[in-house]
Prior knowledge:
Elements (H helix, E strand, L loop, with lengths): L2 H16 L9 E5 L5 H9 L4 E4 L2 H9 L7 E4 L8 H7 L2 E5 L2 H14 L3 E6 L16 H8 L5 E8 L7 H15 L6 E8 L5 H6 L4 E4 L1 H4 L1
Parallel strand pairs: 1-2, 1-8, 2-3, 3-4, 4-5, 5-6, 6-7
Amino acid sequence: MTVSDRILSIKKTIEEARLKSPNKDDVVIVGVTKNHPVEAANEIISNGISIIAENRVQAMKEKIDSSLLLPSKRHLIGHLQTNKVKLSLDLFDLIQSVDSERLLLAINKEAAKKSIVSEIFFQVNIAREEIKFGMFKEDLPEMLSLASELENIRVSGLMSIMPVETREKYYQDMYELFMNEKTKSYKNVDLKFLSMGMSGDYIQAVSCGANMVRLGRCLFN
């Protein structure tokens, strides 16, 4: 099966899952190019995947430094250390993995130096797993309030990574949290995207309300 065929098949599966979803927004596919060369990234970009993502800042830098990467939007989906914020703002259009006040303030500070507004998602650890990054859901309102005071930040979504042994309750809880906060009025916050679901669980994620999925393995294999 070609990359084009795989992408068409995935899009068809997503549309079928969306019929069950409480969220009728179109679903955005983010192509996760982790551990794949520039040529593989370019192949999915050429076949309509307009956003690519990396877990590590250095991995995206290497792709861009090659001067071969086709035009695309670039998202960071892995944990970001504060000492790499400056570089990340040069490389990425959006950071999906903002999970602490310290990181939020560091991004705002560097964005102010560059005279830009940095687009971010807040990462929520909805299952409260010790091994995963992300704030707990009860901490989200306070973080959104803080973001509303920062002139160089725009929060446009929430992101979550589900447990390996998925339970529908976590997807539903994440969608409920997204919708609850979406109805509130915060300056610098416009929650458009709920990013949850990867190659192994994107069908369940979409059926429960995700309108952005992060796909790697199923795009390339």
